[in-house]
């Protein structure tokens, strides 16, 4: 498999001409999303926020970690499949929702933050990113966090929060005055922080609920569009983190537990889609939707194995939230194009750098992920 095959996610046998077409399509997509971000953020002004400035700020806050993602740097590859139950087909024409359709999925569990060798900690935000491989070479890529809401509403707030939240070397915690000034400037983030602090922290990745947080639109075969957010809800009841777990000193305990659990048996989550009504915020990921909104279980994700990150697996994937199949479309949330453009910049930098092995690889044995 060549580097181009890996970067574009093309199957190993794809001939050179088809590969070049795929490259230009991805190039056009990235240029398009970066262009949209540039326009939204006022690219041409010298003080404008650009994808490069966001990624520079991650590097300034976390220090240099060549070859690693600039955020969610510590991770593990997972694999499995998604079985649609047909309930989603009325809302979205995406083939992944057809009754009885099984779609292969590869993904990555990770911890938020730009430190690839940080010790696992219960309060660090957990994430699950997935790449569904649909027939006819379509893909659905989604990155979800185990949070009730996202801490910021705009790319500018994200950029400011990165610096405001930087731990002070003396205390290991963010400077309270800086955080106070940040919350005063972005009151919606102060409210979101309250919801995030009050969340239940479960025992590990396997019983975490992962949410899209951003809104999207499902588009039906007749063209009808429905605002949605989605969540992966674990099939088994969630366990709250115990005191003995919290006291563990194994630096990779969350990842090691998942590897051990998947070695015993597959783990499943229900993909539950919440349907927004008119007036529900689609451009503000800090705001929860009312709890009584209709939700629909559209199928089951089953993860069967885990593999340490290395060349050619989930390490070399950009889980760009705007890689969507026909039948799922972006909402007006300004974070979406900002994410797409920043992920592309982070990906371009890390793909060009020599890397060290993932921290998780050091303790994990080789799982059975495909
Ligand atoms: C402006 C807002 C945001 C920025 C600038 C940002 C930035 C980033 C960057 C630079 C990466 C590393 C990408 C790579 O190298 O592949 C990343 C990863 C990730 N982000 Fe965001 N992010 C934002 C908002 C969000 C939101 C709203 C979510 C919602 C759930 C999210 C979930 C994730 C996940 C799950 C990953 C890890 C993907 C993986 O495992 O490869 N991010 N983010």
TrEMBL record:
Keyword Heme: yes
E.C. designation(s): 1.11.1.-
Domain of life from the UniProt record: Bacteria
GO molecular-function terms, A-Z: peroxidase activity
Coiled-coil regions listed: none
UniProt keyword list: Heme, Iron, Metal-binding, Oxidoreductase, Peroxidase
Domain Catalase core, chain residue ranges per copy: 23-370
Keyword Iron belongs to the record: yes
Group of enzyme by EC: oxidoreductase
UniProt signal peptide: none
Needed co-factor(s): heme
Chain positions covered by the region annotation Disordered: 348-370
Family stated for the protein in its record: Belongs to the catalase family.
Purpose: Has an organic peroxide-dependent peroxidase activity.
Descriptive protein name: Catalase-related peroxidase
Natural source organism: Methylorubrum aminovorans
Gene name per UniProt: srpA_2
């Amino acid at each position: 498999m060549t580097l181009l095959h890996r970067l574009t996610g093309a199957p190993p046998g794809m001939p050179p001409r088809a590969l070049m077409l795929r490259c230009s399509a991805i190039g056009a997509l990235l240029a398009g999303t970066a262009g949209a971000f540039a326009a939204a953020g006022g690219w041409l002004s010298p003080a404008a926020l650009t994808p490069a400035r966001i990624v520079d700020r991650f590097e300034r806050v976390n220090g240099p970690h060549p070859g690693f993602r600039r955020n969610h740097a510590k991770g593990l590859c997972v694999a499995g499949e998604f079985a649609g139950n047909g309930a989603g087909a009325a809302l979205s024409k995406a083939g992944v929702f057809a009754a009885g359709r099984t779609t292969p999925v590869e993904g990555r569990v990770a911890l938020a933050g730009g430190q690839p060798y940080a010790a696992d900690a219960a309060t660090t935000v957990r994430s699950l990113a997935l790449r569904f491989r649909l027939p006819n070479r379509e893909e659905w890529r989604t990155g979800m966090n185990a949070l009730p809401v996202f801490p910021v509403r705009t790319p500018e707030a994200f950029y400011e929060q990165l610096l405001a939240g930087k731990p002070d070397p003396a205390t290991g915690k963010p400077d309270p005055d800086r955080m106070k000034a940040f919350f005063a400037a972005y009151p919606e983030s102060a409210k979101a922080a309250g919801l995030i602090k009050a969340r239940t922290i479960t025992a590990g990745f396997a019983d975490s609920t992962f949410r899209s947080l951003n809104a999207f639109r499902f588009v039906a075969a007749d063209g009808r569009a429905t605002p949605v957010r989605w969540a992966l809800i674990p099939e088994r009841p969630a366990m709250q983190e115990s005191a003995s777990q919290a006291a563990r000193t194994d630096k990779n305990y969350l990842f090691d537990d998942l590897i051990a659990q998947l070695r015993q048996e597959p783990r499943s989550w229900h993909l539950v889609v919440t349907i927004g009504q008119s007036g529900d915020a689609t451009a503000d990921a800090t705001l929860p939707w009312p709890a009584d909104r209709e939700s629909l279980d559209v199928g089951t994700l089953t993860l069967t194995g885990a593999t340490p990150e290395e060349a050619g697996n989930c390490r070399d994937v950009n889980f760009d939230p705007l890689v969507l199949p026909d039948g799922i479309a972006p909402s007006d949330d300004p974070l979406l194009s900002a994410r797409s453009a920043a992920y592309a910049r982070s990906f371009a930098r890390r793909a060009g750098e020599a890397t060290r092995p993932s921290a998780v690889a050091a303790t994990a044995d080789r799982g059975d992920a495909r």
